[in-house]
Amino acid sequence: MTKWGKRTEAIHGGTRRSQYGELSEAMYMTQAFVYPTAEAAEARFEKSGPDEFIYARYGNPTNRMFEDRIAAMEGTEDAFACTSGMAAVSGALMALCKAGDHVVSSRALFGSCLYVLEEVLANYGVEVTIVDGTDKAAWEAAIRPDTRLVFLEAISNPTLEVIDLDHVVKLAHANEALVVVDNAMATPIYSYATRLGADLVVYSTTKHVDGQGRMLGGAICGSRELIRGPIETYIKHTGGAINPFAAWTHLKALETLDLRVRAQADSTAKVAEALADHPKLSRMSYPTHPSHPQYDIAIQQAPSGGTVLAIEVKGGKEACFRFLNALEIFIISNNFADAKSIATHPATTTHQRLPQEQKDALGISDGLVRLSIGLEDPADLIADLNQALEAV
After folding, report:
1. Are 211 and 265 in the same domain?
2. Cα gap 257→187, rounded to integer Å
3. Is residue 193 located within the same domain as residue 68?
4. Residue 1 lies inside a defined structural domain of this protein
5. Do residues 24 and 47 both lie within one domain?
6. Domain identity same for 248 and 271
7. What are the phi and psi torsion angles at 222 (to 5°)?
8. Measured distance CA(200)–CA(182) in Å, rounded
9. Which of 199, 234, 253 corresponds to the end of one domain?
10. Which residues are CB-neighbours of 377 under 8 A, at least 6 positions away?
11. Phi/psi of residue 292, each to 5°?
């Protein structure tokens, strides 16, 4: 068999067993590796093979199992595992751009992604153009023959805008620009970025992959040429490689990823339907709910809108905080895609440092709440949200 489904790849893909024949993947907690002779060390440094390792910052058998497995799930040739989702985002962008390059990005991004684009890349001489990702004409006007790279979130955090990825990829490739997609909200299970032609797909594996509030992690998936070329070169020299314990934990988490994400996504759709017309809300946003502005694009691209929805509580910050403080099951935190359901107030936490003008443009109001749906009984979650809304 040469092609497995995602659930099978998540359990068996990339397995490397030692001479002891262990059932569970081995965790190689080592910084460096030894060689039988000086000649062997020289040969390893000149050219190391896929199962030959030099130093943990360059590669590790446990890390490589995780990289192979998530690449197989995503449908790419290779992957590089990083210390966090932001290490993956910044690593991909920094590895591929230099002073004088032009980058086009959607504006609806996680706050740290905006920082990397507008502060880090711009400070190093990269020209960055920010566009409304839902506006096809804006992409057409911004992408130029000298554009090096296009960056976007497939589903934006926290407002859940959905971009017509097929349109953007075709525009970018017509101008020989690379496309880098942050896929955290779309999830590895419902991912469509590789199918639609993205060159690199970036994950915060802290989210759905770990999915249980334990480990930071990230992954960059793409062609072997890009991953083992500029991506690996940049990350191994700047220290962004994942540690073996996190990689091992991620490997074990992948075994249940499909089951967890599908259950969470099913519950999210039920919660979205229950809140769609609630009188205490000015809006509810979930990509595959018919009320979503980009609904037609969303259902063309994926069968599910993922595990997160957004609501806007009427009455601003004061009313919103009464709602949050009345929740009994939902936990107030700034994470998402966890087994536990989480409520986040982006305006005062994850996107707090954005200027008010930028918050207004992105739709991050004082009443906006990002709801990450976990593995609890959906009926209990709906009841908790309804009783908390009574406090508004």
Report:
1. no
2. 10
3. yes
4. no
5. yes
6. no
7. 180, -160
8. 9
9. 253
10. none
11. -70, 135
Residues 6+ apart with CB under 8 A from 229: none
Domain residues for 237? 6-253
Q: Output the domain CATH number for residue 180.
A: 3.40.640.10
Distance separating alpha carbons of residues 358 and 344, to the nearest angstrom:
19
Q: Which amino acid is at 140?
A: E
Question: What is the full DSSP assignment across 2-43?
Answer: ----HHHHHHHTT----TT--SSPP----SB---SSHHHHHH
For residue 373, tell me if it sits in a domain.
yes
Q: Which CA distances in Å does 202 have to 27, 227, 288, 301, 334?
A: 24, 12, 22, 18, 20
CA distance 129 to 21: 52
d(CA 391, CA 280): 10
**In terms of domains, do 295 and 383 share one?**
yes
Note whether 168 and 193 are same-domain residues: yes
Eight-class DSSP state of 117: I
Same domain, 214 and 234: yes
Assigned token pair, 88? 């993956």
Residue 82 lies inside a defined structural domain of this protein = yes
Phi then psi dihedrals of residue 89, to 5 deg: -65, -55
The alpha carbon torsion through 127, 133, 138, 144 (nearest 10 deg) reads: 40
Query: What are the distances in angstroms from CA 214 to CA 178, 247, 290?
Result: 33, 12, 35
Give the CATH number of the domain where residue 355 resides. Answer: 3.90.1150.10
Asked if the model's pLDDT at residue 1 lies above 60, the reply is no
pLDDT in tens, 271-324: 999 999 999 999 999 999 999 999 999 999 999 999 999 999 999 999 999 999
Please give the model's pTM, rounded to 2 decimal places: 0.94
Residues 235, 378 share a domain: no
User: Cβ distance 192 to 75 under 8 Å?
Assistant: no
3-state SS of 237-255 is HHCCECCHHHHHHHHHHHH
At 201-225, the pLDDT tens digits run 999 999 999 999 999 999 999 999 9
The total domain count for the chain is: 2
Residues 6+ apart with CB under 8 A from 245: 27, 29, 215
